[in-house]
């Protein structure tokens, strides 16, 4: 099935460091990640943070000669990817600890060899009848044990009202159901001209958007940021889904309601990537899902809530185009045109 998950591919992650460090990280990621991560090099930590805040990267690995290693994550982008990066940080810490242990053991071995050489020289002097030259005692060089700790920093965490992101993860479901309900009611209950159905979709979408945004943001804390922007996104989502249903009905009659509902629930919704990164879906289905109303809505709501610097033009355009296109097809109203042309219901059984 198109929406079935597989191993992630090409998750964008940043890396900061000199040429040697970046080359080493690239080799390690290529060996262990098996295509799950694609690295993008940034000049500084600030550049990597900006990329994360603009949703161009899920996180970053920051290295440098004058700073301790750091792994940047964004749990609000996706907790699963943030956990992957946190595990990467633990792996880096383990590798560093192993290098430190090897270096300390090397220093101890060198000190032991030096002491053994001194003792041997004393023994040989005694055996040859010479007066052994006992070296002046002095403070021995301490074994150097460097302390290097990999820091993991969550750049964009979830809000305290939704610490695990559970509310945001399920926020799309009531919007999809609301859009389907508006579309079905507008088609099967509202009688009269297609203009009345279009008006019903627009008015009901605006009202439902305000109500659902209020519930999701004020009552459950699932949405963050501007209430009015979130309400507009909810209204646009409901309108796009409802217009899909009424648009199919404008072409097919009552059968269009079922086509619109099946398309939304069984095709568009599974491809929305509301709970998983787009990169977790089979390609090109993950990319296609972002051009359907549920996928655009899921990305838009997450960006409005936690990534205000991210570009959202594509998501707004997708929702508005689906809404406008669906309403235009609603106005076409082929069933009514056939009846006005004198064609009987018997000739078109699905026409009302």
Automatic annotation (TrEMBL):
Transmembrane annotation, as ranges: 166-189, 201-221, 227-252, 259-282, 313-332
Protein name: ABC transporter permease
Species this protein is from: Microbacterium schleiferi
Keyword list, A-Z: Membrane, Transmembrane, Transmembrane helix
